[in-house]
């Protein structure tokens, strides 16, 4: 039996390297908090309800959304706004959506229906449906949401449309999940909130990289000037984030985060359905601009390594008081900054879950980021 040879100097050297990597990740995480997320913490939404002036076309692409449309569509059709239309693109539905829309069309003069029929050799997708809706729109200013979303107030259109001032042609909104019981609901709400903090803070810094189709507005001119979804029409997902990623500039974009301007939806009922949804969403991240991929990847990787090394260095008892002190410093800074944001976005209850879900969030980002790299989306519903 060969003797075991130990290299104590090498072990110390490796530990020192790991400690330095931990410090670098710690500094990187402070940068994202202070230089980016703090922008949203300082941002003050307009409190007074704006008076609607611009005509607006609300566009919803729906495939087999009978139950959601039955509940949510009247809330959109009863908005307190002087001049708007609601275009529902019925994309090859076979669940009585057409019957419901025909009934609503007689009750609500503002409702217009665009119907896409199933074709044996031509497969449609959400981008095709939205393109038809945009072409059918009477008005220049377009507001988008999904069939499973409901506005949180009757002033949703007013607040989103009021941001179209000067050169602004894109408005990013916020769309949280509804609060209910269960850990899946808690984490889904937390993940949505953290995603919003990232993309809204980036927008405030003048470098927007995405928006969400559940609450997004832009102009018809911008859409056709930049050839719509042509650059990524072959990708079924990305009608919202890829469009914003390619067309947003510091001058043409604004955000609206007032609670009256939110649209909310329910979390997927099972872990499996939630997984499918997130896998589809993560699949388009690899098509972002290079600088945005680097920015997001560095945040995800530095956060993951930070937590991994925090646990490991504590396990081997390497400077435990210093390691714990740095962890608590970052956590306290997070609480100070995030508490303002969580309160503004009506998710204050999630601040208590920050120490647990922040770690899970970075684990989630790296796992789904890796899955998304090899994922090809085959259907939008």
From TrEMBL:
Keywords assigned: Glycosyltransferase, Membrane, Transferase, Transmembrane, Transmembrane helix
Entry keyword tRNA-binding: no
Source domain of life: Bacteria
A single MF term (Gene Ontology): glycosyltransferase activity
InterPro entries cross-referenced by the UniProt entry: Glyco_trans_2-like, Nucleotide-diphossugar_trans
Pfam families (alphabetical): Glyco_trans_2_3, Glycos_transf_2
Domain Glycosyltransferase 2-like, chain residue ranges per copy: 57-175, 179-362
Transmembrane stretches, start-end: 12-34, 295-315, 321-338, 350-371
Family: Belongs to the glycosyltransferase 2 family.
Protein name, entry field: Glycosyl transferase family 2
Organism: Mucilaginibacter paludis DSM 18603
Taxonomic lineage of the native organism: Bacteria, Pseudomonadati, Bacteroidota, Sphingobacteriia, Sphingobacteriales
């Amino acid at each position: 039996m060969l003797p075991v040879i130990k290299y104590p100097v090498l072990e110390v050297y490796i530990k020192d390297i790991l400690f330095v990597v931990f410090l670098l990740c710690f500094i990187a995480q402070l940068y994202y908090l202070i230089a980016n997320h703090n922008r949203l913490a300082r941002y003050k939404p307009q409190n007074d309800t704006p008076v609607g002036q611009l005509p607006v076309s609300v566009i919803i692409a729906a495939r087999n959304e009978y139950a959601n449309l039955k509940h949510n569509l009247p809330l959109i059709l009863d908005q307190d706004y002087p001049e708007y239309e609601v275009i529902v693109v019925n994309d090859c539905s076979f669940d009585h959506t057409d019957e419901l829309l025909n009934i609503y069309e007689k009750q609500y003069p503002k409702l217009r229906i665009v119907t896409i029929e199933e074709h044996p050799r031509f497969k449609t997708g959400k981008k095709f449906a939205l393109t038809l809706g945009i072409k059918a729109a009477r008005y220049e200013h377009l507001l988008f949401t999904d069939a499973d979303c409901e506005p949180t107030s009757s002033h949703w259109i007013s607040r989103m449309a009021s941001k179209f001032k000067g050169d602004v042609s894109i408005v990013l909104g916020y769309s949280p999940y509804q609060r209910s019981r269960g850990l899946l609901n808690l984490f889904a709400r937390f993940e949505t909130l953290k995603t919003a903090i990232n993309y809204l803070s980036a927008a405030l810094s003048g470098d927007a990289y995405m928006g969400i189709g559940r609450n997004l507005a832009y102009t018809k001119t911008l859409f056709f000037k930049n050839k719509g979804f042509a650059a990524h029409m072959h990708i079924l997902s990305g009608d919202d984030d890829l469009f914003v990623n390619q067309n947003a500039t510091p001058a043409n974009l604004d955000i609206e985060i007032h609670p009256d301007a939110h649209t909310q939806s329910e979390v997927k009922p099972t872990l499996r359905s939630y997984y499918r949804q997130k896998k589809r969403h993560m699949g388009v991240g690899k098509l972002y601009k290079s600088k945005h991929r680097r920015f997001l990847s560095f945040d995800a990787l530095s956060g993951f390594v930070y937590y991994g090394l925090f646990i490991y260095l504590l396990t081997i008892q390497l400077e435990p008081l210093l390691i714990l002190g740095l962890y608590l410093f970052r956590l306290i800074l997070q609480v100070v900054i995030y508490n303002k944001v969580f309160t503004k976005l009506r998710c204050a209850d999630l601040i208590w879950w920050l120490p647990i879900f922040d770690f899970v969030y970075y684990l989630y980002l790296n796992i789904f980021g890796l899955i998304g790299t090899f994922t090809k989306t085959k259907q939008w519903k």
